[in-house]
Amino acid sequence: MKHLFLVMVLTACSSTMPVLPKTSDIKVSRELPSGDCTPLGTIVGNSNSVKPDKDAMLEDLKDEAIKKGANYVMVETLGAQGSAIRGQAYNCK
């Protein structure tokens, strides 16, 4: 039992997490992507501030894109009272 625990601890310590892209790596546009792109679904970026902050919404949108494995976002709409940005996430080669 001790050996199994030791193996589990050593394995956990030696495994590395994959490096996720930064939000600056995500391309955002109002245009459909060109080339070999796979659609990954709808994503939404929100702002948690009292006054809607478009930069914060855009960063949140990019964070959601990263979670889906996307590197391109086509922005579709700005929500009511400017509280959210909705778009389609794509993984483009």
Q: What does the model show?
A:
- With 93 residues, the protein is α+β, with helices and mostly antiparallel strands.
- The chain has one domain: 2-Layer Sandwich (Translation Initiation Factor IF3).
- It has two helices and four strands; from the N terminus they run αββαββ.
- The protein has a four-stranded mixed sheet with strand order 1-3-4-2.
Notable characteristics:
30% helix; globular; alpha+beta; four-stranded mixed beta sheet; 93 residues; Translation Initiation Factor IF3
Topology:
Layout lengths: L1 H13 L12 E3 L7 E10 L7 H15 L3 E7 L5 E9 L1
Parallel strand pairs: 1-3
Antiparallel strand pairs: 2-4, 3-4
Helix-residue proportion: 25-40%
The sequence of SSEs as H and E is HEEHEE
The tally of helices reads 2
Mean pLDDT: 83
Biggest sheet, open or closed, and with what strands and sense?
A: 4 strands, mixed
Just give the CATH class: Alpha Beta
What would CATH call the homologous superfamily? Answer: Hypothetical protein apc22750. Chain B
Derived structural class: alpha+beta
Q: Please tell me what the overall shape is.
A: globular
Examine the secondary-structure arrangement and name the CATH architecture: 2-Layer Sandwich
Indicate the low-confidence ranges by residue numbers.
6-10
Strand order within the widest beta sheet: 1-3-4-2
- Structurally, the number of domains stands at 1
- Rounded to the nearest angstrom, the radius of gyration is 18 Å
Q: CA-to-CA gap between the ends?
A: 47 Å
Count every beta strand, where a strand is a DSSP E run of 2 or more residues: 4
At CATH level 3, the topology is Translation Initiation Factor IF3
Instruction: Give the percentage of residues in beta strands.
Output: 25-35%
